[in-house]
Amino acid sequence: MSFYTPSGTPSTGSPGDSAPIRAEFTSIQTAFAKLPTLAANQFWQVNSGGTAVQSITASALAAILKPDLLEIADSATNTTSIAASFTHTTDATPAAGIGTAISFITETTAGNHTGAVISSEATDVASGSEDFKLLFKLMNSGSAASTKLTLENDGRLSLVSGGQYQINGISVIGATTLGGNVVNSSLTSLGTIGSLVATTADINGGTIDGVAFQGTIDNTVIGGSTAAAASFTQLTAVAGGSWTSSGINLASGDSYKIQGVEKLGATTLGATVVASSLTSVGTISTGVWQGTAINQTYLVGQSGTNTGDEPDASTSVKGVVELATQSEVNAGTSTTKVVTADTLEGATALKARTIKSDTQNAQLKIDVLTAAQYASSSKSSDTLYFLT
Predict the structure, then answer these.
(1) Does residue 188 or residue 172 have the better pLDDT?
(2) Is 265 exposed, middle or buried (0-12, 13-18, 19+ CB in 10 A)?
(3) Torsions phi, psi of 117, nearest 5?
């Protein structure tokens, strides 16, 4: 397809209206006349055969140019080809902080907003020591997009303060803590542990300071295959204690404590240990029983009474009493001792004998009086009075 071919070259200084120049303008006019007329939002395109120019619409042009797809066609088989480059140059002196960003703008009910930004920023621009970091910024709660994640030049991945690494929406690790669902690990070293709850432990040497174990430590191995003693600097207050594969051995005079309070010594439980699940005990020589009543079935060789802690009996309280002797019953002066049937009989017989003895040689007088006479008369001990 030919649009314009020069027919000649005007000589230098040729007049503007010379025949050669007029001929060239005519050829140019003819070339433009070959172009199709364009309507609104249309473009020129050389047809696939290269024989003519045709008009196309904007959508047809977009299908050809593919602005939403960066496409590379080359012969590379095992290398990366750059499909797009974003360049930032300055007419001033570069400094740390200069960078290039890609902004993602989306329309919302409040208008167009920059929802996300991926930014490459220089942290060192000195020749030969340039460093860059990659920042990921996001809009949150209507605030301008701010940095949430940073990939440092040395490969470190840094989350914003308060950020967490999650898997399927579940927190796995934060700035200072593992997620609550992280229950297994292959850690080979630990820092200072303030508290520890262990059900099984496999400890191969090292030092444990101030660790309080809650619960049971099963199958504990100390010191590796040789079962060498590990060093536990806070397990004992003085030298001489050890923790080996055979168990914990405190130094003489030491005790097991929880939060500084003694719980178990060589021969005693701590004063604050007030509950247990003991099913047997040794011989108890002293103590005060304040629990429920003990069934007689479990009292061996004991009557269940007169064990030494019953109160003394009184007219209002049941309790312990002492039997009165015959002489004490005869005297009739004790207010705390008990009279038996035997001692009562003895005292009664004594009184009868005494009365008989006193009246054997006496003369008994009988007098019959009215109540008024008896009340006003002088009474005699040897007179038996009958009232009418």
Answers:
(1) 172
(2) middle
(3) -140, 130
- Cβ-in-10-Å burial (0-12, 13-18, 19+) of 336 comes to exposed
Residue 231's closest CA among 253, 261, 211, 201? 211
Q: How far apart are CA 183 and CA 165, in angstroms?
A: 16
Contacts of 368 (CB under 8 A, 6+ apart): 385, 386, 387, 388
Model pTM greater than 0.90? no
pLDDT tens readout for residues 270-289 = 899 888 888 888 888 888 88
Name the nearest CA neighbour of 133 among 94, 90, 99, 85: 99
Q: pLDDT tens, 121-169?
A: 999 999 999 999 999 999 999 999 999 999 999 999 999 888 888 888 8
Q: Which amino acid is at 148?
A: K
Quickly tell me which residue has 């940073």 as its tokens: 150
Task: State whether residue 24 is helix, strand or coil.
Answer: helix
Q: If residue 367 lies in a helix (H) or strand (E), which one and from where to where? A: strand 365-369
User: Residue 152: what pLDDT?
Assistant: 95
**pLDDT higher than 80, residue 212:** no
Q: Domain coordinates of the chain in residue numbers?
A: 99-167, 194-286, 311-388
* Distance (Å) of CA 29 to CA 14, 92, 111: 20, 48, 49
Q: Give pairs for 339-343: CB < 8 Å, separation 24+.
A: none
